Amino acid sequence: MSEYTVIGKPALRKDSHDKVTGSAQFCADITLTGMLHGAVLRSKVPHGIIKSIDVSAAKEAEGVRAVVTGEEVPYRLGRSIMDQTFLAIDKVRHEGEPIALVAADTLEQAYAAVRMIKVDIEPLPAVNDVLEAMKPESALVHDRLEDYWHVDTIRPVNGTNIYDHFTLRKGDVDKAFAEADVIVENEYDCAILHHAAIENHLAIAKVDGSGKITVWSPAQSPYYIRGELSRALKVPENKIRVIVPPIGGGFGGKLEARAEQLAIALAMKTHGRPVKVAFSREEDFLAGTVRAGVHFKMRTAARKDGKILAVESTNWWDSGAYSTISPTVTLKANVILAGPYEVDNVKMDGYCVATNKQLGTAQRGFGVAEASYAHEQQMDAVAKALGMDPYELRMKNVMVDGCKGHTGEKMFAVGIKECLKEAAEGLGWEGHPTSWITEDGKIRGRGLGTFMKFTGTPSYTSATIKLNFDGSAVVSYSTTELGQGVGIVIPQIVAEELGIPLELISTVQVDTDHTPLDKTTTSSRATYHLGNATIKAAEDARRQICQWVAFKWKTPVERIEFKKGGIIVQLDEQGKPTGKQARMDELAKNGLIKNGEPILGYGSYETTNIWHKPDPETYQTERLTAMWFFGANAAEVEIDPDTAKIRVVKVVAAHDIGKTLNPLGCLQQVEGGVIMGIGNTLLEEFIHRDGYLMNGNMVDFKIPTSMDSDVEIEMRLIESSPHPEGPYGAKGIGEPAMCATQSAVASAVAHALGVPVVHVPIKGEHILAACRKRLEEANDR
Amino acid sequence: MIARFDYHVPASLDEACALKKEYGNTGIVVAGGSDVYAKMHLGDHLYDHVIDIKKIEDMQGIRWSETEGLSLGAAVTHHEIERHPVIKERYDVLVQGVRTIGSLQVRNRGTIGGNICTAAPSADGIGPLLVLDASCVIHGLGGERTVPLKDFFTGPKQTVLADDEVLVRVTVPTPAPSYGGAYFKYGRRNAMEIALLGISVYLEVADDGKTCSAMRIALGTSAPIPIRAQKTEAYYIGKDLSDRQVVEAASSIILEDASPRNSWRADGEFRRSLLKLLVPRTVRTAYGALTRE
User: Fold this and answer.
1) Domain that residue B240 falls in
2) Which of A21, A190, A205, A733 is close enough to A264 for a disulfide, judged by CB 3.0 to 4.6 Å?
C-alpha cells in the first residue's frame, strides 16, 4: 500500500482532450482586433555585406502599414554574448537572417511587399566548417567579438571565431596516461539537427500608448524572454508582458526569442495595432534554432583490470552565426564528457565556435546526448582493447554515492549502477552475444549507453494555490507546458498535499503580468523545483485553512490538525480527536471555507544557497547543481546488409527517477525521448553546401514518422536513490528520456559491425562496406 | 505563402489544352497539387495561372477488362489505385510502388497522371508502370495520340507533351496469367520519402518454372529520367532464376544501364553499390512472388 493517494499513480494530462480534438487555441489561432500581419525579408546568402536596401516600393504597396530595416532597430540580443541584432545591419551572417520587415493588412499583402524590397548583398566566403573556423586564416563571422557585452562566466577569444573556451581540469591527466595499460583515441562527429517542433516560431506583439509591450508567444521561458527583450530594448521589465498560449512543442528551441523581436520591431511603428509574425516551416529551418554540430577528439586511459584512469577531450561545437545560449551547451556537455564513471583525472577543452550557419542553441539535453555518444563509444573501444565485456567494464567504473564527481564534488543520490543493471537485464545481456547473424541473413547487435546530466543552478521558481469556496483549487506558476506534463504533475502534488480531488484542480495560462516568478522551463527542472515550491504553497494554504477552521470551530489553532488525505480534525486538550472533523474533498458540501477569509497559498524554491561557483579554469566546486540525473539505455538493432538500413528492435530505458510521481507521464516522456533519440541517431542532419542549407524542409530533413517508430520500448524507473531534496524524492525525466538513446543505438551498431561509429546520424554510406565485411566473415566461419 | 495566381477549372479536354497553350510557361496543370502546390508554397512567384484538370470526366476512373487491360484516368489518386481489387490482384507491382508515395494524406490527393507528368526520376508510380508496359493517351488540340510510357520522358523533368497537350489516361495491358512483380524503394525513412533508388521488376518464366522468358526492369533515381535496364534485362532472358548465383551475377552488368549521380541526398558511389546488391535482390523477390496456377 503506497503512502500516497495521488502521487505515483498514472494521471492523464489535463490538456489531452483539447490537444487531441484540436480545440486548443495556439498562438497561430489568435486573431486580435485590428491585427496586422508581418512578413520577413531574409538573406538568401550565408555571409555577405549589405550594400543597399531599397524599401521604397514596399512602403507604397497596397495594405502596407509599416516597413522596418535594421538601422531602425539597433537593439542587441544574446544570453551569453549580445551579438545579435533584431535585423541584419551592414552584414548578414547566415542564410535566412532577417533583413527587413513589413506589416500589412493581410498576409498576402505583406508577402507581396516583401518581394518588392531590393537588397544588394556582396557575398563573402562562408565559414562553413567548425574545424576550418578554428584556423588562424579563417574568415571571421564576427569581426570584433570584443565589442559585444558578454556574461562574465564565458571567455570569447578576440580575433577568432571562438565564442567561448570552456575548461575543466581534475587530477593529473598526463601522469595517468603515462601509467596506463591501454589508451584509446578516437574522433566523433555529430551533425547539426533541428528541433522540428510541430509549431513553428511565431509571436504577436502590441505596443500601447504608454509604451507597454505585450507579446503573445509560445515561449518556453517567458520570464527569460522578458528579461532578454528588456535588456535589448532598454525598457524596464514591468513594461513588457509575455502571454503564453498553449505551446506546440519546444525541445529547447523555444527558449530563444526568434519571432518576438520581429513582431515588436513592427508593432513599434503601427500605433497600437498588434502585429503577428509567424514563421513558415522553411523559415523555421533557416532562422529558427538548431542543435549545434560537434566534433569530438577523445582520449581514454585504462588499466588492465578495466579501471578508467583518465579521460581527455578537445571538442568544437558548430554554434552558428550568433551565440545564443550555446556556450552553456558546450559547458554542460564537457562537464559530463567522461561519463557517469568515477575518473580521477579529467581534462576537457570545449570550444563554442561561430560559423555562417543556423543558430545552435539548447536542445533536449544541452549537449548531453552527443557527449554520451562520444563517451560510450570510448567505453566500448576500451572494452574491446581489454577483451572485456562492455557491461562489466561500465559496471566496474560507474559512480556510486560518496564518490568524487568530475567537478570534484561529493556525489549523492547516484542511481546509475541500478539503471545500468536494469537496462542490461531488460535486454537479457548476460551470456548473449553482442553481434550475430539472423536466420534470414540480417546482422544484429546490442549495445549500452549511459549518461549523467545536471540541472541548471542556481535558479528559482514559485507557485500559488487559490482555493475557491466550492472546494476547487487553481494553481498558478510560470513553468510552461511543453508536453513534459507539468500541467498534471503540479495538480497531482496539490491534490496529494491538500486532499482536493485531482479533477477539481486547474492550472492557469502563463502570463508574466499575473503568474508568479520563474527562471525558465528547461533543464528537466520543473517537477523538482516547481514541485518543491508547490509543496510549500500547499503548506501555506494548509496553515491558512487551519487558522480559518480554528476561528470557525472556536478552537485554538493548535488543536486543529490537518491530516494526510485532507481530513481536518478537532483535537481536545489532551490532543485526542473530539470526533468533529471535515474533509477537504467535501468542501462543496460542508461549506467549511465558504465566505471565509480567502485562502491563497504561496511557495517558492531557489537554489542559490546550495550552489558554489566553480573555479573558472578547473571547473572544480563543492557543489555544482541542485540535482544530477542518471540513466542507461540498452538497445538491440538489426541491420539489412544489402541496404545498410538500421532498424532499432528494442530499447530498454532505465532512469534514476528518484520517485515516480506520474508513471504515465514518465512513459510518455521515455517513449517520445527514445524515438527522438533514434531520429537523431539514424536520420536527422542539416546538410550544407558552402553555408547554404540543402534540406530545410520536412521531406528532406528526416524526423521519424510513425512508420519509423516501430520499436519495442521497455521503461524501468529506478527509485532506489531518491533525491533528499526532491519532492517525495523525485528528480527529472524530460531530457534524460533521450540522453542515452543515441549512445545505446550507436553502441549496438558498433558491436553489430565490429567497427566504431564515428559519425551520427549513422547513414548507409558510412556502414555498407562494414556490413558486407561482417557478412563475409560470418560466411567464412 | 503561395503567391497570387489565377485559378482555372476547365470542364473539357479541349478547354484544358487551350488554356495550357495560352498560358505556356506562366501556367501549370495541376491535379492533386502534391507536387505543384508544395513547390509554390516556398514563396517564389512561379506561375500566374493554375489549370486544375481534376473535374474533367475523361481523366476520371479506373476501367478494366481482361481483353482491354487496365485504363487509369490521369486524375485517379494513388489511394484509389492502392485499394482497387483488380489492381491488387493482377497488377500488384503497381500497388507496391504507389503505396510508398508520401503518406496516406498525400496519396489521397496525388494522382498517377501528376506523378508521371512531374517526370521526376524518383517517381514511385512510374517504374511499375514501365515494367507493366504502360502507354500514355495524350490529348491535344489536334487530336489524340498514344505514346509508350518508356518514350514519354525526354530529359530531366521533361516529357513529350506539346504546349497544347495533356495526359488523359494511362493504359496497361493485361499481364501474363503467371508472372512475378516486385518494387523496391530505397529511402532513409519508411514514409514521406523520396526514393534514393527505385527498382521495379516484372518477370515471366517458362513451363519449367525457372527459366526466365520475359524480364523487364525499371530503375528510378538511377539516371536523369526513369529508365528501363535493357542490358540487365537481356542478361536474364533464358537464365535459371532459381539459381541465386546466376541472379546475382547481374550485378556486374547493372551499371552499364544505370548512371546514378552524386548529390547531397546520397553519394553516387553508394547508390551504385546499392544497385548492384538490390537489383538482383528485387529479381529474387519477384521470382518468389510468381503467381502460379
Assistant:
1) 180-288
2) A205
